[in-house]
Write a structure and sequence with these properties.
The complex is a heterodimer of chains A (265) and B (305).
Chain A (H helix, E strand, L loop, with lengths): L2 H10 L1 H20 L1 H4 L3 H8 L3 H6 L10 H35 L2 H4 L6 H33 L6 H26 L5 H20 L5 H6 L10 H5 L6 H24 L4
Helix pairs in contact in A: 1-8, 2-6, 2-8, 6-8, 6-9, 6-10, 8-9, 8-13, 9-10, 9-13
Chain B lengths: L1 E12 L2 E12 L3 E5 L6 H8 L7 E6 L2 E2 L11 E4 L11 H11 L9 H7 L13 H13 L5 E5 L7 H18 L2 E6 L2 H7 L2 E6 L2 E7 L9 E7 L19 E2 L4 E5 L2 H11 L3 E7 L3 H15 L4
Parallel strand pairs in B: 3-8, 3-9, 6-7, 7-8
Antiparallel strand pairs in B: 1-2, 1-4, 4-5, 9-10, 11-13, 11-14, 12-13
Classes of the chains: A mainly alpha (265), B alpha/beta (305).
GO molecular function (chain A): ABC-type transporter activity
Pfam families (chain A): ABC2_membrane_2
Keywords (chain A): Membrane, Transmembrane, Transmembrane helix
Amino acid sequence: MKTNLIFHELRQIRRGFLTCLGITLLFILLLLAKADAFVNNPEMESLLAGMPDGLLQTFGIAVDSFSTLEGYLASQVFPYLIVILSSFAAAWAGGSIAKEKDRGSGEYLFSLPYSRSNIFWSKAAAHWILMTLVFTAGSGLVLVLTFSSGQSVDTGNILTMLFAGYLLVLSFMGLGYMLTSWVSSDRTAVGAAAGMAVAAYFLNMLSGSSEWMERISYVSPYRLFDAAEIVRGGALTLAGCIVTLGLYVAGLVTGVQILKRRDIS
Amino acid sequence: MLAVEAQGISKLYGSKAGVQDLSMEVKQGEVFGFIGPNGAGKSTTIRMMMQLLRPTEGSLHVLGEELNREKPELRRRIGYLPSEITLYPQMTGKQAIELTGKAYGLKPQQTPALEYAERLQWNPDQKIKSYSLGNRKKLGIILALLHRPELLILDEPTSGLDPLMQRELFNMLRELNQSEGMTVFFSTHVLSEVEKVCERVAFIKDGRLLRVNRLEELSLGGTHRVAVQFQSPGDARELYNLTMLDPAVQFDGVHHHLEASGTQLSALLVRLAELPLADLEIRRPTIEELFMNDYRAAEKEGETV
């Protein structure tokens, strides 16, 4: 890794970073500002209880998740927050090398006296730094708003849930890296990587709609952690940690190996 | 030591060959022209030298090192100007110089960037997206020369530069070659550019190296092609006895095409001045014509090309 290249990549995606940060913070602010209207609201609970089970199952809505702030965080804030961040993470990773090839700047970049692996790892380091910053800022805002709500919450459980989300985001970043050295079109790489993140979310959301959907939804990394269980004191599953980190590492290794072998044209 | 030594290198894209069985040597300290029409395989050859593409076959040595695996440190000794230089649009020229300088461990003030910017009349403070093709080219030239490389590889360096800047570039190349012994590998499809700076020239077409000549060996010899249209239409070869001026004179339905060199040219012009001309064009042969003539001549003589 080279600091020159890390700073270069940070400069290249600073707009994406600011957009991602802005959307994330705004989203958290809007959902948690409205939390009082949903959480512990008997009318809301009776409204949901009156809905057909099939509909609730299809959209993965658990009625009791609206009885506590933690439940609301796990069922309403967490999934959408993670799908937003996963899409950005996958897009950054997917576009990292593909964009250089597509735009034509790769001929300049890969002619500098840096090895291809150095370039790749420096870009990955920059993405990791920015995504960690967004996640830290987002998590901080979640905690501040949770505390300011006046409701009693277990900070440890919320942080564990957010960490599970962080691992999920890294796994989608890994999928982006698998694509980036292989695909020559920036749009294809970014679209496919971000598309996978969104598709995985919908697979998980619709998993209750039928047995068939339930079976195929197991390919979605979102199934690796049960956020509702975690905020109730459940631990991160070992399998979840291994698979998410495994996808991240496998994506990085695959991406760098493909880049080392492919022509830059 | 040779600056570049290629032995039977080929680059295949599926079933299509970008370069086929190319062998050549470039000596250190020489200015070497690499000439051929668009799509001939010039850029592919250069990209193999820059380790951007891997040869499918053959061996390639650059500055004494075989390119059998990635050698980023070797690129410290090479300056490269791609034919279509694309950089980061949001950056300024100055930032591009800083980024490139850092890659070579240099601060901008340790480089000749400002001197070259002045000579090429280039403004480093603008964003790259606002640069014209010529200004992007100037930036590319400065970036390629930033670290005073041993080997400078230029792919179509003059496209987009106005004639004054082209002349300045040739001056810079001559100076760097003479004062620092910099090897220059100059790829172009413009013959007159090769004539200005190069000592030897390699011709490439359809991915194959046709021949490598010293410039003085080329049959340039002041050959000119003359196209004439007379006031009365039709084939006038017999009427005006044009075969006396050039036995191979051709008529394409409108123009008569003759070739002449040296004293023949004067005689031809004197004769044509006596005739009722409607149109006259005199030009140097194109590269294509020149090296295809040489190629056909060589084939006839049964030479090994």
